[in-house]
Amino acid sequence: MVDNNTTQSFEELCAGYVLGSLSSEEKVNFESFLETANEEQLTLFHDMEAIGSEMALLYPEVSPSPIIKQQLVEMAWASINARKGANVHYLSRFRFAIAASVVFMIVSIALLFKTQNLNQDLTTQIALVQEQQTTIKALETEVERKEELLTILEARDVDLILMDGLDVNPSGYGKVVWDKDNGQALLQVANIPKVPTAKEYQLWFVVNNQPISAGVFAVNDPTQDNFFKISEFQQANATGAFAITLEPEGGSSQPTGDMYLLGSM
Amino acid sequence: MLFFILTALGKFLVQNTSRDRALMQRIASKEPEALNELYDHYNKLLFGQLKSILKKTEEAEDILQEVFTTIWEKADQFDTERGSAYTWIISLTRNKGIDRLRSKVYKEQKKQSTSLDDDDVFHPLYSDENNPLENTILSDRAKRIYGALQKLSEKQRSVIQTAYFDGLSQTEISDEYDIPLGTVKTRMRDGMIKLRELLAQEMV
Questions:
Q1: Residue A119 shares a structural domain with residue A78
Q2: N or C: at which end does chain A have fewer Cβ atoms within 10 angstroms?
Q3: Cut 0.80: pTM above it
Q4: Is residue A118 located within the same domain as residue A149?
């Protein structure tokens, strides 16, 4: 049961609210009160609200400037166009982002493959260049060595000593071209076995049964003719014999191994 | 009681409820033509309301534009269950007009009372586009509410008219007429209760 004071208070607030004459605080309080109002109070509110609306018919008739209507219609259309524009813009950006992502991914993959191919090509080219450089270096060394050998052969006065294979290797043979004036010689061997591990062939000049070491060499490919230069080979004796034995790596002071070739001057 | 009676009769408070509801739905769907149509129906009524409260044409036009912009933006928030579009629009306009009135130098402005001489009673909803029956009903509605107001005591009528047509708060009315605030509240309440009774009697 609502008492008379509460009813009167509600009616005063309701009338003031409908007529728009409450203070801000009273307005808020009334709207809050309205949410829990009973049916009778709500009916009163709706009736007073209806009266307030009806009183609007008593305002004097006044026409606003036509510009107001024009501006409102323009505002409405602008808002429609802005929404459409925003949607199109959004879709365009979205599609553009997707397209850009796909293109970027394709380009990235292509560049990755291209880079990998380039790296592989580069590695191959570097290996090839290194191989070619090694070949060139070997060829240069070989040419240099051959030139030195030719220098020996071009000498005016040389001695040629032929060597034959012995029992341990009968098919072997070799020769020594000796430029006594310049103290250097050219050794050529063929058909002698590849040197075992930790072994080398050693050339001996034998004078009066005394072997003098003329140097050591290795044969790595028996199928090929093997030429070697013997430098600083000065000997007072004009006659003697050449022999080749298999010795420990680095050579020996006296022959210790099997004799493979032997030839006399 | 009165609200339901009038709504049932369908011609006293909400003349074109279904039309306004359809317009509000179309505005909520963002149809500029619907806003255009609603403006044609209500611009004179709302502008007269704002002009009465704010006095200045420029200010009234500014708020009128703001009212229809709000309708355009918030039409989807209008709840048909809580009342008619007509009532919603009238309340929205009054609230915006009063907010402007109380937020600016209007407080220092000397209020000009709005006379309601019989000859000045017009119904701004009147339009050449309405059929004769509609115009007759509108005119009848205006005369009915005017007649009810005239049956109030001078003291009751003056506070209601000053509040409604000039936009003064109860405190401002108290100052304006040099009467206690409690008296203003009582006169306003008694006047509105009397109007409710008078209009209900006429509809029975």
A1: no
A2: N
A3: no
A4: yes
- Torsions phi, psi of A176, nearest 5? -125, 125
Burial class from Cβ neighbours inside 10 Å (0-12, 13-18, 19+) for residue B144 reads middle
> Chain B residues with CB inside 8 Å of A46's CB?
3-4, 83
Residues A148 and A184 in one domain: no
pLDDT digits (tens, 9 = 90+) for A141-187: 888 878 888 888 888 888 889 999 999 999 999 999 888 888 888 89
Total CB pairs under 8 A between chain A and B: 177
Place B36 in a pLDDT band, splitting at 50, 70 and 90: very high
Note whether A192 and A129 are same-domain residues.
no
B189 and A8 within 8 Å at the Cβ level: the answer is yes
Shortest Cα distance from A29 to chain B (angstroms)?
16
Cα–Cα distance between B50 and A99 in angstroms, integer?
54
Nearest-by-CA chain B residue for A10: B189
CA B124 to chain centre: 11
Other CB atoms within 10 Å distance of the CB of residue B105: 6
